[in-house]
Amino acid sequence: MNVAPVHAESMLRTALEAWNDREDALTAVLDELPVATYTTDLGGVVSYFNRACLALAGRTPVVQHDRWCVTWKLYTLDGAFLPHDESPMALTLRERRAIRGVEALAERPDGSRIRFVPYPTPLLDKSGEMVGAINLLVDVTEQRHVEALRSQAERCRRLAKGIDDARTVDTLTGMARDYEAQAAEISRAN
Q1: Long-range contacts, stretch 80-89, CB < 8 angstroms, 24+ apart
Q2: How far apart are CA 138 and CA 17, in angstroms?
Q3: pTM across the whole model
């Protein structure tokens, strides 16, 4: 499911409202979210995850055992290994603040990777003390693939404008149409 950042923030607000209304109501709300969502205690130990985490992570997280994240392995966008204790969730817990504007890669046990945007946010008790954190992991793999295809199509069109050879222009224009068709097909599927 494609979830825009605005929708992720809205889902997060709904979850936090449930937390503020009744702490035990939080899991009922989280179970219904269509995006991977989990909570941790202050030490980063996973205390809850919803069904959407299974699909995103490609594994079943272990409550009260896994730390910092529900994913198997993490990487930065340039492919460097990112230890879980340096993840956005770990940073949220250490700095006691929400982390935004980050993207990362999660590797599943089968070796496949997905690109995601995390939304780690402190959980506060009724007295305002931080007791853990909640994180939404929004899969943006297909969105970024569509963006890359459209960018490649635009590049082909720019190249075609600077060439005088009709055969090369036709080839580049055809490639641009193919990239745009692939992007449209992926967008329609979602």
Answers
A1: 84/44, 85/44, 87/118, 88/118, 88/120, 88/135, 89/40, 89/44, 89/118, 89/120, 89/133, 89/135
A2: 20
A3: 0.75
